[in-house]
């Protein structure tokens, strides 16, 4: 009986790396690179000097609006948009004012212990200009969630859980009895944590820009 040769199946090389590279190349256009550069500068200056400088945020807002104008009015802007990225001018302007207005309200009425600064307001307004209205609001909401999560982790890391729980119970008791919180002798109030909003904003921008929740199958 003749031996039959098993057909050899040729398999192509794994394309995972090339697919990921093509995906990221389509996401990280010039506007995105500029935005992340400004975000990193904001994080660095905030951690080292406690400030987010106006030249940083105003420069980002100006770049986002200029690119929005190019996308809206320049002849052949569809070709340029593939290089620059970004949104149209109307969407950029709406995102700028919407995100800025929400942060101003938080800054004026909900700014407990100085957690939000004027630089944070302008930073989120800048992201609204880069992302546009809809995605800008999404970035804003995720910024609050991620910044709060980072703050909790930092708090647990820097303070013993038992002390943290003791102070939490004491604070709840003081609020319930309408009293000023008192600290045991020799135990000073906790120093304020470093601002987490710029770090949360960078994480939120990445989450929304790369659409990570959808690609991870979480939504």
Account of the 3D structure:
There is one protein chain. The chain is mainly α and 219 residues long. It has helices at residues 16-27, 30-49, 54-73, 77-84, 89-109, 118-131, 133-158, 161-176, 197-209, 212-215. The protein is elongated. The protein starts with 15 loop residues before the first helix and ends with a helix.
Which characteristics define this entry?
mainly alpha; elongated; 70% helix; 219 residues
Give a topology summary.
Blueprint: H1 16-27, H2 30-49, H3 54-73, H4 77-84, H5 89-109, H6 118-131, H7 133-158, H8 161-176, H9 197-209, H10 212-215
Q: Quick summary of this structure?
A:
By secondary structure, the protein is mainly α. It has 10 helices and no strands.
Strand/helix succession: HHHHHHHHHH
Summarize the main sheet.
none
* Percent range for β-strand residues: under 5%
Number of helices: 10
| Proportion of helical residues | over 70%
Estimated radius of gyration: 24 Å
Shape: elongated
The count of β-strands is 0
Query: In angstroms, what separates the terminal alpha carbons?
Result: 58 Å
**Average pLDDT score:** 78
Structural class: mainly alpha
Segments where pLDDT lies below 50 for 5+ residues?
A: 16-26
């Amino acid at each position: 009986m003749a031996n039959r040769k098993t057909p050899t199946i040729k398999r192509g090389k794994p394309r995972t790396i090339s697919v990921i590279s093509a995906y990221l190349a389509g996401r990280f256009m010039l506007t995105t690179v500029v935005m992340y550069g400004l975000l990193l500068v904001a994080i660095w200056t905030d951690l080292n000097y406690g400030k987010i400088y106006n030249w940083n945020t105003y420069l980002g807002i100006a770049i986002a609006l200029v690119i929005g104008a190019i996308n809206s009015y320049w002849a052949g802007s569809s070709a340029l948009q593939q290089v620059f990225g970004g949104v149209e001018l109307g969407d950029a302007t709406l995102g700028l004012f919407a995100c800025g207005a929400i942060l101003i309200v938080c800054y004026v009425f909900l700014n407990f212990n100085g957690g939000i600064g004027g630089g944070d307001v302008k930073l989120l307004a800048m992201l609204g200009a880069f992302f546009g209205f809809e995605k800008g609001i999404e970035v804003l909401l995720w910024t609050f969630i991620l910044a709060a999560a980072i703050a909790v982790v930092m708090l647990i890391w820097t303070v013993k859980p038992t002390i943290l729980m003791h102070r939490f119970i004491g604070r709840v008791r003081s609020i319930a009895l309408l009293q000023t919180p008192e600290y045991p002798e020799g135990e000073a109030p906790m120093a304020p944590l470093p601002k987490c909003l710029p770090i949360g904003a960078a994480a939120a921008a990445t989450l929304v820009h790369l659409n990570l929740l959808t690609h991870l199958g979480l939504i």
